[in-house]
Design goal:
Elements lengths: L8 E6 L2 E6 L12 H13 L6 E6 L4 E3 L4 H4 L13 H10 L4 E5 L2 E3 L1 H8 L2 E5 L3 E3 L2 H4 L9 H7 L1 H10 L2 E3 H7 L4 E3 L4 H13 L3 H15 L1 H16 L3 H12 L12
Helix pairs in contact: 1-3, 6-7
Length: 264
């Protein structure tokens, strides 16, 4: 058990498993400024601890795994690390770079940036209550790189484009059928199922698994560069009235008027 305290996370180590819990259930575990850095720190602590064999990333409560960046932060301006002022791409890269499998344990909503995180994790295990989907084009945002190109590798080009262009929501059963998750179990069996997968992984050679993860990543690591370029474009896009309209409409709970704000 780690004695380090986080503002927005719960961190625990048990039986060679590190569990990182996003702990803002009242906000559907949306990620606010400073929370990105906490998740990155927790991933690095677990990832380079030789006693840890697998990392579980999950959300507190029954309603959500994660719903991405907190829209309440978007209107305040972002001035931290990362291309967007918050280290979104650094978080994505850390999930891939730590030399341990990262399992997304999903209850409730995995929407927007939360859906991207679940996609990037090595494995995703969902309860029957899980709901997946994107919202970016509805709120004046997009998650390039791993959020789009890597998603297409998992579910196929046509389905990935549907997910992003239409911003629909998909049940756990639908996510399983498209290959977005590894397995789906009843909600009251989710914890035990994840524990079983973790126990199996921890019985395997950690060095062999580390090499396997690096090999899998090498095949798709070109997406990292695509993502960096994409985030530079998104950073410019966020300064436009079109993007700002998406955030305003979300906070005001109305339909955005994107076309009237578009330039060119």
């Amino acid at each position: 058990m780690s004695d380090k305290k986080y503002r927005d996370l719960l961190y625990a180590e048990k039986d060679h498993v590190a569990t990182i819990t996003l702990n803002r259930p009242e906000r559907y575990n949306a990620i606010r400024e400073g929370m990105y850095e906490e998740i990155i720190d927790a991933l690095m602590r677990a990832g380079w601890n030789r006693d840890i064999g697998v990392i579980v990333l999950t959300g507190a409560g029954e309603k959500a795994f994660c719903t991405g960046g907190d829209q309440g932060d978007k209107g305040k301006g972002r001035y931290g690390t990362g291309t967007l002022g918050v280290p979104v791409e650094i978080l994505h890269n850390t999930i891939r770079d730590v030399p341990k499998p990262v399992i997304a344990k999903v209850r409730g909503y995995a929407i927007g940036g939360g859906n991207v995180i679940a996609t990037i994790c090595d494995l995703t295990i969902a309860s029957e209550t899980a709901i997946f989907g994107q919202v970016g084009p509805k709120v004046g945002s997009v998650d390039p790189g791993f959020g789009t190109a890597y998603l297409a590798r998992i579910v196929g080009e046509k389905k990935a484009r549907e997910i992003w262009y239409l911003c629909r929501r998909y049940s756990a059963k639908e996510a399983l059928a498209m290959g977005l998750v590894n397995t789906v179990v009843p909600d009251d069996e989710l914890d035990a199922e994840v524990d079983r997968w973790c126990a199996e992984i921890c019985e395997r050679s950690p060095t062999a698994i580390q090499i396997a993860k690096s090999s899998f990543n090498a095949s798709s690591d070109n997406i990292r560069g695509i993502g960096r370029m994409g985030f530079e474009a998104v950073n410019l896009y966020y300064e436009t009235e079109e993007a700002k309209e998406g955030g305003r409409a979300f906070r005001e709970k109305r339909t955005p008027e994107f076309r009237s704000k578009r330039v060119g």
